[in-house]
Specification:
The protein is mainly alpha-helical and about 425 residues long. The protein has 24 helices and no strands.
Length: about 425
């Protein structure tokens, strides 16, 4: 097997190093063998040995950087890739890996510059085109990202990941039918590609084809039964088909595999709240809480039900109980803020949203409610800041677009 081959290789390099302890290439190759065995600490030790013997050894810097990258130690990886391109400015892989390290540090413009350097040296470097596309997509520049994915597909039309990435960018532009074509291409080359099945399902759901979407989610779950997003999205489609019990079962699955998945709790609570009164959902929540009074998620679910039934003070009491148990429960802060808004306690609501935003600065739900609350307080400039922050994360955020339009209208009238 391959693992035995790498172990045998290490034994050979050890023999070589016994004869010549200063054999730089043997240290480097031994490090690479350890890397493939996922013995990363041993690999780094070998690369360091090679670099002590030859500090300008470009490939040892690259290999050491790749090992740090595998360990997700991106700042350390970046130092190594900087050394790689310093000693060899025409090292294509060095520029590409430097871009990857920067991208993982969310320094997307610098990452794009590195991918561009790699592509100047090799215009047919598929991975660099694809990586540049991903960086552009992370900057919400989806059209430019698609151009890069097309370049990557020109050189490697069988790349499942590139087809998936292009489909995802098209979906962000609301071009769901075109996205499905890309997901189908990815599945043509890899019928077991879980993410492609899941994304195809989401695109179909966005086209209101929920039955077909569920078929795709089931395929994704066939290959990965613990795939949280497929369970969540299947639940959403089932709810749209009015199959509420089955939908709740899917959200329960999502929460089983990721107990902190707030959106699953959110949607499950919304479903409970909209079920007819004879389902006795409050009685169900109370039965759970009687066994476990510290179940903050059930307190939150009960609060959502009260909120939807316009029993606002009872809902706030539930959210406060959830937060007394777990002050880091961002979702409870959001729901408490929404409840306070309904009582016109806008200052208290803003405090809740601020707390939620401190815990999760990129939460679109919070940004939307901050914008709406500030708009109602006639603080238009502040509200616009939160609208723009939400739209930077999701350009199609209908809530933020609606609030932004209202702000622009008010500001125009004031002039």
């Amino acid at each position: 097997s391959a693992l035995h081959q790498y172990s045998d290789a290490i034994a050979c390099y050890d023999n070589a190093l016994r004869l010549d302890p200063n054999f730089t290439y043997a240290w480097n190759n031994k490090g690479n063998a350890f890397y493939y065995l996922k013995h990363y600490s041993d690999a780094i030790t070998c690369f360091d040995k090679a670099l002590r013997l030859d500090p300008n050894f470009t490939n040892a810097w690259l290999s050491k950087g790749i090992t740090f990258y595998a360990l997700k130690q991106y700042p350390e990886a970046l130092i190594c890739f900087d050394k790689t391109v310093e000693f060899d400015p025409k090292h294509v892989s060095g520029w590409n890996y430097k871009g990857l390290a920067l991208a993982n540090l969310q320094q997307y413009p610098d990452a794009i510059a590195c991918y561009t350097s790699a592509l100047h040296l090799n215009p047919n470097f598929t991975n660099a085109w694809c990586n540049k596309g991903r960086a552009l997509a992370n900057m919400q520049q989806f059209s430019d990202a698609i151009t890069c994915y097309d370049k990557a597909l020109d050189t490697d039309p069988n790349s499942t990941f590139t087809w998936l990435s292009k489909g995802t960018a098209l979906a962000h532009l609301q071009l769901h039918s075109d996205a499905i074509v890309c997901y189908d291409k990815a599945l043509e080359f890899d019928p077991h590609y879980t993410l492609a099945w899941s994304n195809k399902g989401l695109a179909l759901a966005n086209l209101q084809q929920h039955s077909d979407a569920i078929v795709c989610y089931d395929k994704a779950l066939e290959f990965n039964p613990r795939y949280v997003f497929a369970w969540f999205n299947k639940g959403w489609s089932l709810a749209n088909l009015q199959q509420f019990s089955a939908s709740i079962a899917c959200y329960d699955k999502a929460m089983k595999f990721d107990p902190h998945y707030a959106l699953a709790w959110f949607n499950k609570g919304r479903l409970f709240a909209n079920l007819p009164q004879h389902f006795n959902i409050i009685v169900y929540c109370d039965s759970i809480l009687a066994k476990d009074s510290n179940n903050e998620k059930m307190w939150c679910t009960k609060g959502i039900i009260y909120l939807h039934r316009r029993q606002i003070k009872k809902s706030i009491d539930c959210f406060e109980k959830a937060l007394a148990i777990n002050p880091q429960m961002t979702f409870a802060w959001i729901e408490k803020g929404i409840a306070l808004s309904k009582l016109r306690k806008t200052t208290d609501a803003l405090d809740c949203f601020h707390t939620a935003l401190t815990q999760d600065p990129h939460n679109i739900i919070v940004l939307d409610h901050m914008a709406d609350t500030l708009y109602r307080l006639h603080k238009y400039d502040e509200a616009m800041t939160y609208c723009d922050a939400a739209l930077a994360i999701l350009a199609s955020d209908v809530f933020a677009l609606k609030t932004k339009s209202a702000i622009l209208f008010k500001q125009k009238k004031q002039k």
